[in-house]
Amino acid sequence: MTQKQTTISLGIVGAGAMGAGIAHAASASGIDVRLVDAREGAAQKACEAIGARLDKRVGQGKLSADEAEGTKRRLAAVRGLDELKDCDVVVEAIIEDLDAKAGLFEQLEDILRPEAVLASNTSSIPIGALAAGRRHRGRIAGMHFFNPVPLMKLVEVIAGPDTEEAVLDFLVDLGRRMGKTPVRVRDTPGFLVNFGGRAYPTEALAIVQEGVATPAQIDAVMRDCHGFRMGPFELMDLTGMDVNFPVTRFVHECYFYDPRLRSTPLHRYMVETGQLGRKAGRGFFRYEPESEDAAAEPTFDAEPTATVFVHGESTVLRELMAECGAELLDSDDGRSPILIAPLGEDCTAYVCREGLDRLRTMAIDTLGDTRSRVTLMAAPGAEESIRQGVASLLARRRKVTLIGDSPGFIGQRMVAMVANLGCEMAQSGVASVDDIDCAMRLGLNYPSGPLEMADALGVKNIHLILQQLQALTGDDRYRPSQWLRRRAQLGVSARVF
Ligand code: NAD
Questions:
Q1: Which of 34, 124, 341, 344 is most enclosed, with most CB atoms within 10 A?
Q2: What does the pLDDT read at residue 5?
Q3: CA separation for the pair 298, 191 (Å, rounded)
Q4: Whose C-alpha lies nearest to ligand 1, atom 43?
Q5: 312: Cα within 13 Å, side-chain hemisphere
Q6: Is the minimum distance from the CB of 121 to ligand 1 under 6 angstroms?
Q7: Pocket lining: 335 vs ligand 1, CB cutoff 6 Å
Q8: Percent of the residues in the chain that have a pLDDT greater than 90, as a whole number
Q9: Strand pairing partners for 32?
Q10: pLDDT at 288
Q11: Cβ–ligand 1 contact at 16 (below 6 Å)
Q12: Whether residue 120 is found in the same domain as residue 176
């Protein structure tokens, strides 16, 4: 193995979804690929399927015939591991089983040249465990691709305890040649993306568990107010509960049941009842053709409130009220709604702290983008006419999500949890700050990385939201990362090392 050599011969073991995807992406980028599978004919079939996909793209005018032919020429199905003996690097993508993968590496060790690199596409097995017992542990590393490989830009390059620096450089270069963005990641449970990705779905499930909001409401807020392309529930439905629940449980167990990574009974229930998501026609939403549109917006028919008193300093709230046509009172008139913009507190806590009238106080979330949608909540027992009147007023100019009382509404607690886990990854050195943000954008399609998110919404704000959540719920799930706490106290960016 020499770094930056011009031609690379890549062996791939396992011609399933991932092996075939890696073979496709590599051969399309000019790399010679030999694909092998233990199942008779599986590698040949995978090559034929890739060929058919290439032909289709040529037919659609998306690929030139020359490029397609070149890709096919570089791709060969081989019948046995010994035909990989001249490969510079072998990536294994066989079943997710330590014994099977370790046994494969043991065989390959005897076949490959001593300097050839051995990489695993494992999602969950420590690279160190695969290297243990091997003669040349320095050449063993993780190369974790994402499904579907030809489309997903990210690859995680993972160092085991003995992996040589030159091997990591070589794999980073290989990833780049394949048109991917490689990030270097420590050998920790879930690596980067499968760990960092736990906050978004589990916090959404916690909000549903508490009866605060529905999956459709949570998805809508995360799309409209925080720029996520998909809400957590549509995302879980897309990946499938049979995939995301085991990953969630695995990471939770590996971190010795850290409450930050905890899911809810509903998550398991979805698996147990076969509500697996899109693939089953039913998950958190229904996907049968006759299904009703779960995301239909509610309408508010009550007479819009004419006058409001805004308590606190929020200019966003004042401007929003003025835009909706409300008259802003200078002081509480004892009749009109009192509007507040809490950060991390629920309406109840704010009302009690400030001695406000609990029947007339309505809380509006002003963190994030409020240009198309706002979230509204009140304390238990609030007057329904006030609740509906304020909702109608806002509905003149915005979509309105009316939820149960919750510290941090929906958006604040969701982004605070995503940012906090990003900070924790930075604190424990899972990857560099840049790589954490980049991986979460590319691997999970987040609108920005978790540390960028903390900066955009305010490091102090995120820290305060988590402190309030922890204090009000008594749940250490919300304890702020020390990385976040230090940067909030110092008043510096979450991305400062
Ligand atoms: P898959 O079941 O689609 O394919 C596995 C292939 O490996 C099968 O064709 C099987 O015949 C072959 N195989 C099994 N044992 C073998 C052996 N000893 N030698 C040669 N071939 C063998 O699985 P997949 O989804 O492609 O996953 C493969 C690996 O990639 C796993 O380690 C998985 O954790 C990891 N991974 C999967 C995804 C994903 O989204 N599917 C994403 C990232 C990583």
A1: 344
A2: 64
A3: 41
A4: 146
A5: 21
A6: yes
A7: no
A8: 96
A9: 9
A10: 81
A11: yes
A12: yes
Report how far residue 497's alpha carbon sits from residue 488's, in angstroms, rounded to the nearest whole number.
13
Of 336, 371, 402, the residue that ends a domain is: 402
Q: Coil, helix or strand for 135?
A: coil
Q: Which of 143, 88, 95, 149 is nearest to 120 (CA)?
A: 143
Q: How many CB atoms lie within 10 A of CB 437?
A: 25
Q: Is the CB of 27 under 6 A from ligand 1?
A: no
**What's the mean pLDDT in 434-449?**
98
User: Which of 123, 239, 250 gets mutated to test ligand 1 (max ligand atoms within 8 A of its CB)?
Assistant: 123
Boundary (domain end) residue, out of 141, 159, 187: 187
Asked if pLDDT for residue 3 goes beyond 70, the answer is: no
The Cα–Cα gap between 481 and 424 comes to 5
Going by DSSP bridges, is the β-strand pair 140-145/154-159 parallel, antiparallel, or unpaired?
A: antiparallel
pLDDT band for position 17 (50/70/90)?
Answer: very high
CA nearest to 162, candidates 133, 183, 190, 191: 133
243 Cα nearest atom in ligand 1: 40
* Residue 77, burial from CB neighbour count under 10 angstroms (0-12, 13-18, 19+): buried
Tally of domains within the chain: 3
User: Would you say 181 and 18 are in contact if contact means Cβ atoms under 8 Å apart?
Assistant: no
Q: Are residues 145 and 38 part of one domain? A: yes
User: 280 CA to middle of ligand 1, Å?
Assistant: 22
pLDDT tens-digit map of 268-320: 999 999 999 999 999 999 998 766 655 678 999 999 999 999 999 999 999 99
What is the Å distance from ligand 1's center to 309 Cα?
60
The rounded Å distance from CA 12 to ligand 1 centre is 11
Q: Tokens 């879980």 label which residue? A: 236
Question: With a threshold of 0.90, does the pTM exceed it?
Answer: yes
| Two structure tokens written together for 189 | 């449970």
- Give per-residue pLDDT as tens, 169-226: 999 999 999 999 999 999 999 999 999 999 999 999 999 999 999 999 999 999 999 9
* C-alpha torsion sign, points 205, 207, 208, 209: positive
What integer best gives the mean pLDDT of the chain?
Answer: 96
Both 182 and 199 in a single domain? no
The set of catalytic residues is 123, 144, 156, 194
The CA–CA distances, whole Å, from 444 to 29, 201, 369, 438 equal 23, 12, 21, 10
Return the amino acid letter for 358.
Answer: R
Domain residues for the domain of 125 are 9-187
Write the pLDDT tens digit of every residue in 401-422: 999 999 999 999 999 999 999 9
Count Cα neighbours of 285 within 13 Å in the Cβ-side half-sphere.
Answer: 24
